[in-house]
TrEMBL record:
<feature type="domain" description="Calcium/calmodulin-dependent protein kinase II association-domain">
    <location>
        <begin position="44"/>
        <end position="158"/>
    </location>
</feature>
<keyword id="KW-0732">Signal</keyword>
<dbReference type="InterPro" id="IPR013543">
    <property type="entry name" value="Ca/CaM-dep_prot_kinase-assoc"/>
</dbReference>
<feature type="signal peptide">
    <location>
        <begin position="1"/>
        <end position="22"/>
    </location>
</feature>
<dbReference type="InterPro" id="IPR032710">
    <property type="entry name" value="NTF2-like_dom_sf"/>
</dbReference>
<dbReference type="Pfam" id="PF08332">
    <property type="entry name" value="CaMKII_AD"/>
</dbReference>
<protein>
    <recommendedName>
        <fullName>Calcium/calmodulin-dependent protein kinase II association-domain domain-containing protein</fullName>
    </recommendedName>
</protein>
Amino acid sequence: MKSYKLLCFTVLFSALVPTAYAHDDAKKAQTKSSMFIGVDTMAAKVVQRFHQALKSGDKVTARQLLADDVQIFEGGGVERSADEYASHHMLSDMKYLAAVNSKTLEHNVKVMGNTAVSMFRSQTTGMFKGKERNYQSMETLVLEKQQGEWKIIRIHWSN
């Protein structure tokens, strides 16, 4: 009788374990897909172009994607126009981003008429000015459709 119970338990357990793992895999896939929502929208493509322009040092494209009156909040400071950012922080941001690696962990874009909000989370690693970097950062961008084109009107960066 004891052997029969052991056999039943073994059969039952071996039947349930793969089901549990399949459920975990499906849950992970669902979670991953919910972390990348709206990334095929035109607003999201502007965000992606902005990130690429900063990473590659393309000042012209980065500036063009910003509204003239953009507000950029970072580290307790604020820049109140695209020209102010282009003449101050942009170049140092480009040097930094060229030196480190950034992996996108999450990107969600919600379009509501002529306004869009982009929530972006990334993992940054690498060396900059002799210091090891390894941290997650958050970015919130607000975009507005102006004369038929998406422009970034607000940026908030935090680590």
